[in-house]
Automatic annotation (TrEMBL):
Ranges of residues in domain Response regulatory: 511-629
GO CC, alphabetical: plasma membrane
Modified residues (4-aspartylphosphate): 562
Name the record gives this protein: histidine kinase
InterPro entries, per the entry: CheY-like_superfamily, HATPase_C_sf, HATPase_dom, His_kinase_dom, HisK_dim/P_dom, HisK_dim/P_sf, PAS, PAS-like_dom_sf
Residue stretches making up the Histidine kinase domain: 269-485
Enzyme Commission identifier(s): 2.7.13.3
Domain PAS intervals: 8-79
Keywords: Kinase, Phosphoprotein, Transferase
Database matches in SMART domains: HATPase_c, HisKA, PAS, REC
Pfam families (UniProt xref): HATPase_c, HisKA, PAS_8, PAS_9, Response_reg
Length: 634
């Protein structure tokens, strides 16, 4: 080879190898072969081309040459063996030339290993993506920017029941048409779909319902290449079961709310209906008790006591039902146990004295033993335990009241008696409603509700109630409640009915209108007023509408309005009274059998001047009426 030709050959960027067409040995090569294969040029001269060309297609080519077929090849791929033994992917062009009368194959070769690796990686990525798309539970549809279908997975085809004719179909209108035919609202879907295609960077989602009842959640995001949108991906998720569950939950919630409303209405109605007849029993009993003497007076006292006991039982049942219905609301604050115990002990002391039972209260420092509780309800709980300790005690027995620490965060109020005790077999059922184990040994009033109510109340306040007992020795009941910080601890007193100032002087006339559908309640108030306040004139109405009309006509000084009337609720008629000029400033007193504090507070906040709970306390009712009379009548 002349020097110029050799210079040109070595300047070539590709590897060039010359192979004798007869012997198939290498007769020449340029310097690039050293970089690609690791051989010096002289080391390759005379070696068979088969030593470095090891690809299967390469071996077939040279076998054909041996057999007399001498064809050229253009840009074919093959494999070369590096001196180290590693295989190199190559692309080559083979030409047959005449070199000084000798047939020679000239191979122009370049290394494509990096390209092949990139192709393999791309193939692996594509395979992984395809596997991912096929393994997802969502149907996937990939479109171009203009909407042409590029790909969809089998789940998409399954969800939309695509016919085989549409597999591999890039005709977006045909696929979209197939989807639209199955939708309950195809117009909405089409508008959303087209909106997504018109905004390449947008993301969005909708729910679509099919005609057969299935529901899909559909979302769409841009397909991007280096932040540039190149298409759009639509994802379809079957939420039919989720929607069915959601519908069931909504139905259950609505049913629960309806049941809750029914419970509230039942409690309010039963409270009113049970207390209304007691209003007559206790009221007329009180009238007789005040007017009679001797044995008839004693009989009237017995009637009053029995009626009061029945009222207590009704209150307990309604309170327990209120908790069970989730309608009881507590108002936790810091309660001073020292004040509460002193108050409760003074209330039960007469009962204890009547049976020669001694009460022993451990002296406590005020504002040190504070618990987080509803003051009124805690007093009710403590009185329940103290009453039981006296009721089921023996004559000349003893009751101790102490406070101890229970762990780091609770105070325990203990009530210890020397009574009959409770058998161990009964302890597990002691806090169930309507259990009265003590009546086997003693005649004691009660319905067996108090302890069940007390425990439920304690748990509403994040506390608990427990007991230890030995038959014939006595019992220890306790209430555990969380400690509280001092914050001007609430006094444990019962809520009183707010009254207006300025009582009517005896002998001054006033007109009262009593709107009440119960004839006995009307008769009771008329009887009481005729004896206690003869200078008051009373008018009555049996319904709310009649009462509003009568009030407009007679303009009474005070209106007493029952809260549950045959033709509506008291709140509606109260508003009607306030809406007419003749009665808009007339004081109105509410009467109801609903003694729940929340109801009392709500009614008073609406504008009533007082709230009287049935059965009426005669003196309280008279005071409320007296104070409600406008001062101009004084």
């Amino acid at each position: 080879m002349n020097p110029l030709a050799e210079l040109l050959l070595n300047a070539c960027a590709e590897t060039v190898i010359a192979v004798d067409a007869e012997t198939l040995t290498i007769v020449s090569a340029n310097k690039q072969v050293e970089n690609m294969l690791g051989y010096a040029v002289n080391d390759l001269i005379g070696r068979p081309i088969a030593d470095i060309e090891v690809g299967l297609q390469d071996m077939f080519f040279w076998e054909e040459v041996k057999n007399g077929t001498r064809q050229e090849r253009h840009a074919v791929e093959g494999e070369y063996r590096h001196r180290s033994g590693n295989l190199i992917a190559v692309q080559k062009t083979v030409r047959l030339v005449d070199m000084q009368g000798k047939q020679v194959f000239v191979l122009s070769v370049h290394d494509i290993t990096a390209t092949k690796q990139m192709e393999d990686e791309t193939a692996r990525t594509a395979s992984l993506l395809a596997a991912t798309l096929e393994s997802t539970m969502d149907g996937i549809l990939v479109t171009g920017l203009s909407g042409g279908v590029r790909h969809f997975n089998h789940r998409f085809a399954e969800m939309w029941r695509l016919p085989m004719a549409l597999f591999g179909e890039e005709d977006e209108p045909r696929v979209l048409k197939h989807l639209l035919h199955q939708l309950a609202d195809p117009t909405h879907f089409r508008e959303w779909f087209e909106n997504m295609l018109s905004r390449p960077q947008a993301e969005g989602s909708i729910e679509c319902r099919l005609l057969d009842g299935r529901v899909y959640s559909l979302s769409s995001k841009p397909q991007r290449l280096r932040e540039r949108p190149i298409g759009r991906v639509f994802s379809f998720h079957d939420i039919t079961s989720l929607k069915a569950t959601e519908a069931q939950l909504i139905a259950a919630r609505d049913a629960a709310q309806a049941a809750s409303r029914a419970k509230s209405e039942f409690l309010s109605h039963m409270s009113h209906e049970l207390r209304t007849p007691l209003n007559a029993i206790l009221g007329f009993g009180k009238v007789l008790e005040d007017e009679l003497e001797g044995p008839p007076h004693t009989i009237a006292e017995h009637i009053g006591k029995a009626g009061k006991h029945l009222l207590d039982l009704i209150n307990e049942v309604l309170d327990l039902a209120s908790i069970e219905a989730g309608k009881m609301r507590i108002q936790p604050t810091a309660v001073d146990l020292a004040s509460l115990i002193e108050d409760c002990a003074s209330l039960v002391e007469p009962l204890a004295r009547s049976r020669q039972i001694s009460l022993h209260v451990t002296p406590l420092e005020h504002n040190r033993f504070l618990v987080r509780a509803d003051a009124r309800r805690l007093k009710q709980m403590a009185l329940n335990l103290l009453s039981n300790a006296i009721k089921y005690n023996r004559d000349n027995g003893r009751v101790d009241i102490t406070v101890t620490a229970q762990g780091d965060n609770n105070w325990r109020l203990n009530v210890i008696d020397t009574g009959i005790g409770i058998d161990e077999s009964d302890l597990s059922r002691l806090f169930l409603p309507f259990n009265r184990f003590g009546e086997r040994q003693l005649e004691a009033e009660g319905a067996g509700i108090g302890l069940a109510f007390t425990r439920k109340l304690a748990r509403l306040m994040d506390g608990n109630v427990g007991v230890e007992s030995q038959v014939g020795i006595g019992s220890r009941f306790w209430i555990d409640l969380p400690c509280a910080q001092f914050e001007h601890a609430a006094e444990p007193v019962m809520q009183k009915t707010p009254l207006l100032a300025g009582a009517v002087s005896p002998g001054k006339s006033a007109t009262l209108l009593y709107i009440e559908d119960d004839p006995l309640s009307q008769k009771l108030l008329s009887t009481v007023l005729s004896r206690k306040r003869p200078f008051y004139r009373i008018l009555t109405a049996d319904s709310g509408n009649d009462g509003v009309a009568l009030a407009r006509e007679t303009r009474p000084d005070v209106i007493l309005l029952d809260q549950q009337l045959p033709d509506g609720m008291g709140a509606d008629f109260f508003q009607a009274l306030k809406n007419q000029p003749e009665t808009q400033n007339t004081p109105v007193i509410a009467l109801s059998g609903n003694a729940q504090p929340e109801e009392v507070r709500t009614v008073l906040e609406s504008g009533y001047v007082a709230y009287l709970v049935k059965p009426l306390q005669i003196d309280t009712a008279l005071t409320a009426i007296d104070n409600a009379i406008p001062e101009k009548k004084s």
